[in-house]
Amino acid sequence: MNSYKVKEENVSLEYYTQGKGEDIIICIHGHGRDVNDFLFLEKRNRKLILLVLPHHGKSFFPEHRVENNPLTIDEFDRLFQKILDRESINRFNFIGFSQGGRFVLTLLPLYQSRIKTVHLISPDGMDNDSFYNRASRNKFARKLFKSWENNPESFIKFARIGLKLKLIRPKVFAFIQLFASNKEVFKRASITWRGFRKIRPTISSIALAIETNNFSFKIIMGKYDQVIRTKQAIEFLSQLEKPNALEEIACGHDFFKADNIQLLSEVIQI
Prior knowledge:
Low-confidence stretches: none
Oligomer: single chain
Largest sheet: 8 strands, mixed
Radius of gyration: 18 Å
Distance between the termini: 21 Å
Number of helices: 10
Number of strands: 8
Strand order of the largest sheet: 1-2-4-3-5-6-7-8
C-alpha cells in the first residue's frame, strides 16, 4: 500500500491507496482499528482509498482542541475533498465501520451525487440522542472522562456499578473492560468520544440524499453484536423509510475476524 497525508491548518489526515482501476471504494475504519480491515475488498481493476481517522496512525488532531474546539464535519470535509482532488476521484463507493460509519453518514449528504453505493457496518451515529452521544455533549461528563484517562480502573469500577444496577448490559461491560484495561487505548477512546462529538449525521438530509439519487444503501449488523445492536439499525432505517436496507450476519462486533470475513464479503455488493 502507498501512504499519503493531507493537511488543513493544524489537522492532518493520513490515507492509503491499494490497487488501480476506475472502480473506487473509500473506506473509513472503526475506533482502535486500522485500514488493513478492508484489504479483503481487493480486486482486479479496483482501487481502495483507506482513510485513517484522527488519533489513529499518522493522522493528527491537536489534543488541546478536543474540549473547546472539537473536530467539525466542515473541517473533515475539507481534508476529504483534498483526497478526492489528489486522487482524481469523481464517483465512488463508500464503506464505514462503527466509528467510521458516523463519518460516512455525516459526509453522505455532501457527496450524494457522487456516491455509487453505501455499505455501513455496525455504524455509530445512528442515534444522536442516545445516552452515549448526549453525554459527549455534556461538559461535566467530558470532564469526568478526562479525569479517568490517567486512571481507567476507576472507570471500570464506575461501569461495574452500572452493571449491577442493570444500566449496562454484560456484553457492553466486557467491551468496556477490554478498552479500559490499557491506559493508552482508554485515552484514545475518551479523546475520540469527546473530540468527535460535533460529527452528527442528520437523518432528514440522509433520507433526502438517498431518495434523490437512488444509490444502493445498506446497513450490515452482527446478529450477536452487543456494542451496536440490530434494533438501533431497525429504528434508524425506519426513520429513513428504508427497512429493507438491513443485512444481518452471524457475528458480534468482530466483523473482521477471519471466520467472519466471508460472511461480510457475501453482503457487500459492489
